[in-house]
């Protein structure tokens, strides 16, 4: 198998966890069991079969540094579970700022927010040139929530460079029919939108809703509130940046229902920033319904996770799937893996169905059964 050449946009906590994880699992590759991974093998690609080849950020404490050092630079605050990431020879370049920094971020201490680098920004043609020169095959987008222009800027760069795209953020690109068509016409595989953590609040909420459905309990009301201490939660204090994020998280849950419960009966979204939590996220979920005889029933759950490693557990699968699709000549949105790893995929399916479809597709060795029977875009 060839290796996967990965570019990263946004060298923040999620990127730090992803890079650490690649080397953590590389050290454990002789082990008979790869633990902590949903898909240990994706068409022959293991979690450690990824080479970092390019990176962009806008923070002065990261731009110009080797990626191996930048992932540990402020304001990153995620858990350090693999300290010995080797020198990578990948200099973090100054990305295009656009709408990547919310105005309110300037009201907080420098160690909690961005210090925008004064280096010259890479323009679109610069990003395209770097992607081609480094022979990048996949780019993962980690620009902040609400950075709609910035997310589309890098999606456009991938289109021009022929690079597969993983949209880990809630800007609707892969789930937007116009953008999806562009990638399909150019035969470039894409996965998105908005990463669904390995075992986070969204997947837990979806699982509980599915349990209500399976046990014949109509859902009447539900909320899902979360807060944390990383830059992502600080950024999201600006509610104007949350439109697509709220849609993404809400539809991830309501898409499982075959009935409407009313907008006033479902509330899902980030609620606050608590600095001392750092990269920990706390989520409270409540569901109310009626069981036998219309008797009231309620369920409450509290979840606490280290946010960024939880995200990386899904990202590492999505990245390998995009590479596998490129190997097999498949372009456009990859439906089954998007439904499995993203909150707002082009098509929503229950998680157990998405997993089953994707695992069945991985069993195929060659594209020899026709496009309808063999592809990632399950109709």
Spatial extent as radius of gyration: 20 Å
Question: What portion of residues belong to β-strands?
Answer: 15-25%
> What general form does the structure show?
globular
Largest sheet: 7 strands, parallel
Average of the residue pLDDT scores: 93
Q: Which structural category fits the helices and strands?
A: alpha/beta
What is the chain-wise order of helices and strands? EHEHEHEHEHEHEHHEEEHEHH
Contiguous low-pLDDT stretches (5 residues minimum) are 366-374
Through-space gap between termini: 29 Å
Topology:
Layout: E1 4-9, H1 13-27, E2 50-57, H2 67-70, E3 92-94, H3 124-133, E4 138-141, H4 148-161, E5 164-167, H5 177-185, E6 189-191, H6 201-214, E7 219-228, H7 231-235, H8 243-254, E8 266-273, E9 280-291, E10 295-306, H9 307-327, E11 332-333, H10 335-341, H11 351-362
Parallel strand pairs: 1-2, 1-4, 2-3, 4-5, 5-6, 6-11, 7-8
Antiparallel strand pairs: 7-9, 9-10
Helix pairs in contact: 1-9, 3-4, 10-11
